Amino acid sequence: MLRGALIFLSFWLFANGIQSVAELPQPRWVSPAESPFLADEGKCLLRWELPQSGDASLTFQVEQSDGSDFSNARMRYDGPDQATYISGLPEGTHRYRVRAVSNEETGPWSDSMEINVEFVSRNLVITLFLLGTIVFVATVWAIWKGHCQYTEKDDSGLTKGGRG
Amino acid sequence: MSEADANTILNPTVGWILLLLFGAAWIGLGIYWGRRAKSFDGFMLAGRNVGMALGSATAMATWVTSNTVMLAPVFALEKGIWGMLAYSTASFGLLLFAPLSARIRQLIPKGYTSGDFMRLRYGKFAWVLFLLITVVYSMAWLVSMGTAGGKLLETLSGIPYVNGMTMILFVCVVYTLFGGLYAVIGTDFIQSIIILIGVVLVGALVLVKTDMSQVYQSMELNQPSLINVLMPVALLSLFNNMFFGFGEVFHNNVWWSRAYAMRKDVAPRAFFVSGLLWFPIPIAAGFIALSASALGINVVDPNTVGPLVASSVLGKSGAILVFIVVFCSLASSIDSLLAATSDLLVEDVGRKMLGVGQNEDQLRMVSKLVICGLGILTWILCAREMNLLEILFLSGPLVASAIWPVLGGLYWKRASSTGAVFAMILGSVVGLVAYYKLGWYTASLISAAISMGVMLIFTSFQKQDFDWNTISNNSN
């Protein structure tokens, strides 16, 4: 009787895929510290951990999606590390999730980590870019003018006037 | 390939053998060349007789630091194509210092330090302010290199951070101590050749072993902002890095001491050539990082992406090459900074401010004590693994504020002490505010702009008529 019940339970667990999910822990995010995270330079370090120290043979899969349901998700990392550095993200919201993998078994996905990429304002960029151009041209001009003024006429350079 | 795998590419025994081999070579060569340093002038400024080959090599090698090997790939990884170019703009500092070095040699032919010039040109208050800026920057640079060096050696070979960092500092302190600038410039020459060949070779090998179209496709899919020519942070970092570089080169005694050490007609050409030679190095180092995604290399710590990718692609021989380049770039910069910063402290703080060491023997002894002290202080700060890279970037607006006071002081009779002081203070303060309020990529740019504006206003309105002879008559 008992033997029959155990066999039934094993079949039931296998058929419902609970066995594999239950054995592998669900990773949780360590970095960024909170979700949503504002990444004003389009970069961030994704780091995760397991609730208890896990099996060294575990690997991890990280998926990225622009939508909250991960229907258009694609793999960003598949390997043994518990972190991956993301850079070059365009403006917008990007979501990530991670799960543990062991052989053919996969664990449950972590909570979604939302990264909001918002660059500095375009007006500020244009203003500072123009300012940079002006300072650069002025610096080169000042050096060039000073150099020409003091190199050709008097080798000592000590009796010639400069600006003004 | 993971970061953990990369650690096993070069085992610690090979790392230690390379470290000891090159360490012994630098110390031996340093002591050998240092025998020529019979006077204090010889010890501090290599007899003021450095020629073209040694001059351009030492300037180039000094400017290739562990930060170049570490940060140029980070710039590429985070800011893409513009990031690589942004880092390369630091070479413009060397190119523009070429004419400045000619003027420095004209105005102050017997000078020792950049502080000498500031003291004679602008007076005591501007001099003290300038010394504060340059000491903060020099220590941040020195410690950031020690920290980065220790971490890079650990990543490449598994040598524990403290052991690697200690060994690097020990080697550099010993040969600088015995040989002064003779030893620094001599070893720089060999190190520059190794660095140049190594970086070009690694860059070329990575290029051969990667499929460019695959790199592009991977970036388009995973890192589209890296190939966006209008990426805001990358655009701003272009000018920010450029002015940080101008500030570093124009004000720091590392470069001024080389200008004094080279023969008069050599200095401008040597700085120009070194700038040209340096320009492609960050591009080669940066390109390596851009391939990471296409090669399936997982980056965990962006600071080690360059050596990690190079070692992963090129295997054990590539890792050995990268290790040697890293060690050379570390040694060539740390020795220069130790020598130049100790010169500044001995001459400006010790001799001119406190009246310590009034004859050559005393000065040389004080100089050696200061080099040892700097080495120990750097070791203590490095051992704490402080985030000195952030402090180095924080010093960006400080050094950028010195660009125009130096320029004005060298070329304009009407440039005043008040203008220079206000330019440095306002440039630094506003730049630091921008660092925290707008982002690091605006700080040096804004500091340089404010400093320029203040200098121009004061120079236009004040009627000072500086006598250049004041400098040359009082410069020894």
Secondary structure: elements and pairs:
The complex is a heterodimer of chains A (164) and B (476).
Chain A lengths: L1 H14 L2 H6 L4 E4 L5 E3 L4 E6 L9 E7 L8 E6 L3 E4 L5 E11 L2 E2 L6 E5 L4 H30 L13
Parallel strand pairs in A: 2-9
Antiparallel strand pairs in A: 1-3, 3-6, 4-5, 4-7, 7-8, 7-9
Chain B lengths: L2 H5 L4 H23 L5 H6 L6 H12 L2 H23 L1 H18 L6 H9 L1 H34 L3 H49 L2 H11 L9 H20 L1 H9 L5 H12 L1 H11 L14 H50 L5 H24 L4 H13 L2 H9 L5 H21 L2 H22 L7 H5 L3
Helix pairs in contact in B: 2-9, 2-15, 4-9, 4-13, 4-15, 5-11, 5-14, 5-15, 6-11, 6-12, 6-13, 7-8, 8-9, 8-15, 8-16, 8-17, 8-19, 9-14, 9-15, 9-16, 11-17, 11-20, 12-15, 14-15, 15-16, 17-19, 17-20, 18-19, 18-20, 19-20
Overview of the molecule:
- The complex is a heterodimer of chains A (164) and B (476).
- By secondary structure, chain A is of the alpha+beta class.
- Chain A folds into 2 domains: 20-117, Immunoglobulins (Immunoglobulin-like), CATH 2.60.40.10; 120-156.
- Chain A has helices spanning 2-15, 18-23, 122-151; strands at residues 28-31, 37-39, 44-49, 59-65, 74-79, 83-86, 92-102, 105-106, 113-117.
- In chain A, strands 2, 4, 5, 7, 8 and 9 form a 6-stranded mixed sheet that branches.
- Chain A is elongated.
- The model of chain A is unreliable at 17-21 and 159-164 (pLDDT under 50).
- With 476 residues, chain B is an all-alpha fold.
- Chain B has a single domain (3-388), classed as Sodium/glucose cotransporter.
- Helix content of chain B is 81%, strand content 0%.
- Chain B has 21 helices and no strands.
- Chain B has helices at 3-7, 12-34, 40-45, 52-63, 66-88, 90-107, 114-122, 124-157, 161-209, 212-222, 232-251, 253-261, 267-278, 280-290, 305-354, 360-383, 388-400, 403-411, 417-437, 440-461, 469-473.
- In chain B, helix 11 crosses helix 17 and helix 19 (417-437) packs antiparallel against helix 20 (440-461).
- The N and C termini of chain B lie far apart (58 Å).
- The model of chain B is unreliable at 1-7 (pLDDT under 50).
- At the A-B interface, strand 5, strand 6 and helix 3 of A face helix 5, helix 6, helix 11, helix 18 and helix 20 of B.
